[in-house]
């Protein structure tokens, strides 16, 4: 696998112009990257340790690359398709390059090279990591469209000071039900009690 990624890095470095326009697709647990105009010298690569797994006639370049993806244990990591081959000739080659030095690259027209690497379905990736299905997100808290947008000021969570306790309201004074007449009688009684000691002081004592 490391050799495959190093080979992909070399392809990107040597042919940067083609790499920018080369699309990458996903198929059956494989990432398939297309490099038009890039060819591998099969005979020289076999001398350097590469393995020719299969060569046959295929209908399209897409089928040639996808068949490479379906090999057991991902043994096929490179597929070459020739567009100008005759109807009876071989036009699809599947190879395994174990190291960076085992595959000899060159330019050739009417040829497309596919680099196949094992991968994970992009729908199961979240920021480069596997998505844990046990994690539940409430839909009304987050949405795919505005998950990264800042919340408006009225929805941000701030720590506010606790409100001061409100003192209990004073109990209302009892409302007097005393009538005006009763109040007058009460004042008269109080006045009599006040005058009674003065009368006692003015009364002469018997000799």
TrEMBL record:
Compartments where found: Membrane
Stretch forming the signal peptide: 1-19
One GO CC annotation: plasma membrane
This protein's UniProt keywords: Glycoprotein, Membrane, Signal
Compositionally skewed regions (Pro residues) per UniProt: 164-173
Keyword Transcription regulation tagged: no
Region described as Disordered: 142-207
BP term (GO), one: extracellular matrix organization
SMART domains assigned to the protein according to its UniProt record, in alphabetical order: MANEC (SM00765)
Record-level Gene Ontology MF annotations: serine-type endopeptidase inhibitor activity
Top-level division of the source organism's lineage: Eukaryota
Basic and acidic residues bias: start-end ranges: 191-201
Main localization category: membrane
Protein name: MANSC domain-containing protein
Source organism of the structure: Neogobius melanostomus (round goby)
């Amino acid at each position: 696998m490391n050799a495959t990624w190093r080979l992909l890095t070399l392809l990107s470095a040597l042919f940067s112009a083609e790499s920018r326009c080369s699309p990458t697709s996903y198929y059956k647990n494989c990432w398939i990257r297309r490099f038009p105009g890039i060819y591998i010298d099969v005979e020289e690569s076999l001398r350097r340790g590469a393995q020719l797994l299969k060569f046959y006639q295929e209908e399209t370049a897409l089928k040639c690359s996808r068949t490479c993806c379906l090999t057991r244990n991902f043994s096929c990591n490179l597929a070459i398709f020739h567009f100008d081959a005759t109807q009876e000739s071989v036009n699809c080659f599947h190879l395994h390059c174990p190291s960076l030095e085992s595959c000899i690259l060159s330019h050739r027209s009417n040829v497309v090279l596919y680099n196949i690497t094992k991968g994970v379905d992009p729908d199961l990736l979240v920021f480069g990591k596997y998505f844990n299905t046990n994690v539940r997100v409430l839909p009304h808290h987050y949405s795919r469209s505005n998950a990264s947008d800042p919340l408006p000021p009225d929805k941000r969570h701030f720590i506010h000071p606790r409100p001061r306790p409100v003192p209990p309201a004073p109990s209302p004074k009892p409302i007097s039900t005393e009538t005006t007449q009763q109040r007058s009688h009460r004042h008269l009684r109080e006045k009599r009690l006040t005058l009674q000691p003065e009368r006692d002081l003015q009364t002469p004592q018997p000799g």
